[in-house]
Amino acid sequence: MNIHPTAIISKKAKISEDSVIGPHTIIGDNVSIGKAAKIGANCLIEGYTTIGPDCQIFTGAVIGSAPQDLKYKGEKSFLEIGSGNIIREFCTFNPGTGEGSKTIVGNNNLFMAYSHVAHDCLIGNGCVIANGGTFAGHVTIEDKAVIGGLVAIHQFVKVGKLSIIGGCSKVVQDIPPFSTCDGHPAQVYGLNLIGLRRSGISRDSIKQLDAAFKILFNSGLTVKHALETIEKEISSPTQESAYLINFCKTTERGLSRSSRE
Predict the structure, then answer these.
(1) Is 203 a residue whose pLDDT tops 90?
(2) What is the largest CA-CA distance in the chain?
């Protein structure tokens, strides 16, 4: 274990033997840090926080501090961070609010400097959150989503997988999977073709998604009628098209609108 002599580590904390902890970092009683994790200088890690193996946390990050929620009255809640995450300078991650609730971060995500993950968020795998990305409470970010710099996402919003949101956008409704979005509020501009191709999605599936997007966002139909039309016209949906349809059917905050409306 490589711990700088100025670091303050609780004797109750569980620290893997091959972890590296930088100068002036403080780690609280109920923290667990996995194998080969690297914690930079001047970090604060507290609360009931679990950090998986191979994570890198850079200078000044505050991980596991009390949620920024007026309802929070000191309940025992948790923050679980998976493996291989890169958490850059001055990021802030909060645990859940209610008794036993959790904020969960998956694996292999990149959080650039000053990103904020609020209470009760659920972050998938392989996401990129650019500098200053800000998530309110109960936000869900699905796998391989890309969030631009200074994007603010409203509470309870769900961001679909393999979507991309342009910098400085204001997100108040759900972002469809596989989409490219931007604006105030964020609007759908089309498919995230680059992300789909990089992920190895087949041409046939991309073609089907393109047809579905045109019905959803360019036809002038309501979401309900657009989904009915898609299901009639696409008799054998690919895995991706079926996922898109289900996402749109189960949205709670409504879908972000088309830029063409």
Answers:
(1) yes
(2) 66
* 261 pLDDT above the threshold of 70: no
Burial of 62 (0-12, 13-18, 19+ CB in 10 A): middle
CA distance 32 to 180: 37
Instruction: Determine contact, residues 137/121, Cβ cutoff 8 Å.
Output: yes
Q: Is residue 189 within a helix (H) or strand (E), and if so which, with residue range?
A: strand 186-191
Mean pLDDT of 168-192: 98
d(CA 176, CA 89): 30
Output the CA torsion sign for 27, 31, 35, 37.
negative
pLDDT of residue 28: 98
Q: Which CATH architecture has domain 2-141?
A: 3 Solenoid (2.160)
Provide the pLDDT for residue 259: 82
The pTM for the full model equals 0.97
List residues with catalytic annotation.
119-120, 137
Q: What are the domain boundaries of the chain?
A: 2-141, 197-249
Whether residue 215 has pLDDT greater than 70: yes
Residue with tokens 């936000």: 139
CATH architecture of 197-249: Up-down Bundle (1.20)
